[in-house]
Structures are given as C-alpha cells and as structure tokens.
Amino acid sequence: MKSKDMKPGSNPDKSSRMVPMSLMFVVLCGFSFYLGGIYCSEKNRFFKKEVEPKVESRREVAVPSSQMKPIAFPECGSDYQDYTPCTDPKKWRKYGNYRLSFMERHCPPMIERKECLVPPPEGYKSPIKWPKSRDECWYRNVPYNWINNQKSNQNWLRKEGEKFIFPGGGTMFPRGVGAYVDLMEDLIPGIKEGTVRTAIDTGCGVASWGGELLDRGVLTVSLAPRDNHEAQVQFALERGIPAILGIISTQRLPFPANSFDLAHCSRCLIPWTEFGGIYLTEIHRILRPGGFWVLSGPPVNYENRWRGWNTTVEEQKADFDKLKKLLSGMCFKLYNKKDDFAVWQKSSDNSCYDQLSLDSYPPKCDDSVDTDSAWYVPLRSCLTIPSQNLKKLALKSTPKWPDRLHIAPERVSLVPGGNSGLFKHDDSKWKVRIKHYKNLLPALGSNQIRNVMDMNTLFGGFAAALIDSPVWVMNVVSSYGPNSLGVVYDRGLIGSYHDWCEAFSTYPRTYDLLHLDGLFTAESHRCEMKYVLLEMDRILRPNGHVIIRESVYFVDAVDIIAKGLRWNCQKQDTEYSNTEKEKLLICQKKLWYSKSSQH
Questions:
Q1: Cys-Cys crosslink for 519: which of 285, 344, 356, 456, Cβ 3.0 to 4.6 Å?
Q2: Which superkingdom heads the taxonomic lineage of this protein's source (predicted)?
Q3: Pairwise CA distance, residues 74 & 78, whole Å
Q4: How far is CA 77 from CA 81, 117, 207, 299, 508, in A?
C-alpha cells in the first residue's frame, strides 16, 4: 500500500492502521445521515404538492349536497353565440396547416375554460318541428348567408323572408337529392332490402343526403369540420338531421372499427390518394366488412366532366387509375359504376388480406394499436384487418333492419361481463324505463323533441326503446369506459366516443333532450361536475329538456347547480318508486336573450 509517510513495501503497525479507518467509518456514517436528511426534506417539499390535492378532492366529494351553494353563472358575450370550445376558429392560428389539422379538436386548457352561459343569437326562435324542419329553418337561428350567396346556383338552400328553405340541391344533385339517392339505390340494392342501415357522409354540406335517407331506413352521421362561414353541421342539426363536427386529418374519427355499412363522398374535396392513401385507410377502418364506399365527383366520370373541373382529361384519367389501384391494394372491389357514381365494396372476409405480402401498399398494420381505439389516436397509412374471431361481423352476416335492433350482436362478448343474457336484460329494462320517462315528460315521443343524446350509453338500450318515436339518438360511449360502441352500431344505431371532461363536437343549441344514467357517479373523479353541466347547457336548445338518473347525492348536487344555469328542475322517483338509492331529475332550460343584444 502507498502513502505519503511510507515507502512501498513497508509494514506499518496494525494499531496505527485502525485509528484512521475508524475515523473514516464515523465520517462516512455522518455524511450518509446528512444526505438522508436532505433527501427526506426535499421529498416532502416536492411530493407534498401532489398528495395534498388528492386529500382535498376527497374532502370536496364528501361535502353533503345540502351544504353546497348555488353558483350564479354570468352570460358569455354575444360573440360567443356559436362557441365551440374544442374547434374554435379564433385559436386556429396556434396550430399548423399540415393536412388541415388546425380544424381538428384542440380543447382549451383548464385555465382558459369559460364559466359562462352561451347566449342564443338575437331574434332566436324555438326550432321548427320535425318533419317540417327538414325543409326549412328560422334564419335568425343560423344567421349565415355564405352558402346562400356562394351556392345559390346549386340549390343547397335559399333565404325566403324569415326562413331558410332547403330544396334538396347540391353540387352533385342537379335533379335534386331524391333523384340522386334513387340512382344510388339502383346501384346498391342492399339499401332497399334493409341490409344497409348505418352510413357516414364525409363533407356533408347541409346534410340533404342524410336527410333523404332517413325515409329509406338508413341512419346517417353527417360529418363536416367547423368553419367560419358555412356552418354545415349547424344547419344539419337545426333541420333535425344527425351530424357531428369532424374532419379526416391526422387523427382517427371517434368511431369504432367495422361500424358503418356505407360511407359516402359527394365531391367532398378530400385528397383520397395523397399522403399514402391515409384518408382512405380510415374509411377502410370504420367500414364494416362487405360495406360500401360511394364516390361521386372528380375523378369519377372524368371522360364527360373534366372540362368543368379546370383540369385535363389526361390528369383526371391518371387520378382515377391511381385511386382504383389504391383501393384494390386495400381489398376493395369496384362493385358498380354509372354516370357520376362509383361504388366500391370492402372485402367481406380475410382471404384478400391473407394474400397481401410485406411489399404490399398500403401495408397491413401491426397489432400495437387497438383497431377500435379512436380518441386522439393518430391516423396510420396501413390497413386494420378485421378480427378472424368475429365470424358475423360482415354485412352479409348482419341481420337486416329492423331485426338487427333487438338481436344480441357477436361483439357483445367483447364488452367486460357482456353476453346475450345481459344484452336482452338491458333491452327489456330500457323499455320499462322509457315508458316511465314518457309519463313524467309527455313531450318525449311527440314532435316537441327531435335531437336526442344519450350521454353515457352501454348497448344503446335507451335509443332502441325510442325507435318508434320521431327522434334520433346520438349514443355516446366514454373513451375511458367499457368499449361497447361497436355493439351500438351492430344494432343499426349511431354514436360516438367522447370524454365528458371536454366539450362535445357540436354547435350550441343543437339537442332537444340530454339523458344521462350514472354519468357523474362514473366520471366525477375525473371530470368536475360544474364544467360538465355548463357543456350540457351549451349544447341544449332553449326550452330543451334534461333527464338525469343518478344517486340521491348527485341528483341533489345537480339540482343546486342547475339554478345557476337557469334550468327549472323537478325530482322524481324512478320506475321503482320504493328505492332510495337513485332518483330522477327532470329539467327544462329557459329561453333567455343576452342583455347586450337587447339594447
């Protein structure tokens, strides 16, 4: 051993070595104790902030509802009359232009959330009742002239006095939407036969296509992005036609895989073959095996139409050939073609996908992302392959409408605890509940209520029990709960994933009735009740109704907060009047006008 005092190889006395070693041991122990003290004090300093909010949140939940105080919510300014928090055009500049991603959902952070009541436009009237609303609406309810001015030659709509009139025209509907759908029925016999029930219209205009299909037994989700001038989705919902704000851009649409029987694009201006065909891969994902994709407009019928498209016949031919090649690589087959229509059909089984090689384009997706996951999930330019475990998923194996409404779908087994017995019990339960609801709210089942939302459905039983009423129902399944939305679509109903900690993808004043069953019990640990109720107020029409089915604690709590929303509420027993575990709260929103608009 080397040291300053001894030369190498010298032998020190053993007792002289023990003293410095003992001193070193004492020093190290003391230093370790010192570091431990610093660590503990710093840990308390940093982690104390994380622990304290959890304790506070438990204390808040435990506050008796009788001790809660009403909140007086102020009015938002009149410039918020069409406020859509997660698709706000005022915020578009903050986001990139790539693939129009600024039009996707971008919800405000908590610090920027509005705690005010969204006012109606000046001169707002109660909407025209269904079915008359399909053909006309009040101008003051959707006071936008852009479409009327820019599309007047295409008969999308026209202004007559205090109303907008919808004559059923469109870019590709020169003879009216009825004649357009007649030709489509000739090309796809399954529409008349009841095989095709659910559809999605991408780039829907004022939703005349979806409105026309309602009389033919087809329920359509009309999809269009929020915009500054056209207000397409707002017009659709004002007419009483199902619609939702959305765009195929960088994220999946909020629907499960293998849902829609038919997808439609009528000159929707989506660049289907660009970006590796990524937009078509999303259509492929949400279409049921054997489902149809209908395209009318460029480049279909380019031989006769190219002169009006500001292009050349060679360019349009190349585009059409590229589209056909891309669809063939996705296992679509050209099913029918006539005039301005081209219809492709998705493969009904996996035989085509089994033949795809590693060099195929687009490639098959790996299994790293659930095909049903669709809440802020990025689009991928690859094919999602239907599960081989589901033998009855294809359109040809799906019961025809209306039989499919009450038959337990195969996908019910994918829901935790789900089976045909539970499905039938749920179906029967909601028939009893709806009968009770109609006794308490006579407007339900009449033309006073048209646009309905079930805010947290399981199998769509609430909507199924209302099938004979003049309503349509948007069935919402929590993005954090059991994934049962595929079952809803298998029944021939429509819906969307959503997280109620955020705003829904719709305009203000678009629903006549909102229904929830245990939503606050399930989500109050994540979503603050005040903000959920403010969002409900935003999307509820004046004079619209709310049915809340909850535990007594939450019924009492909502009743208190509802006073600040200007709702009139009544507590009611459930159909089982002897239970004290849950109650009903039935509310109606008042029609009021902004003070600033009354000067």
A1: 456
A2: Eukaryota
A3: 12
A4: 8, 9, 30, 45, 14
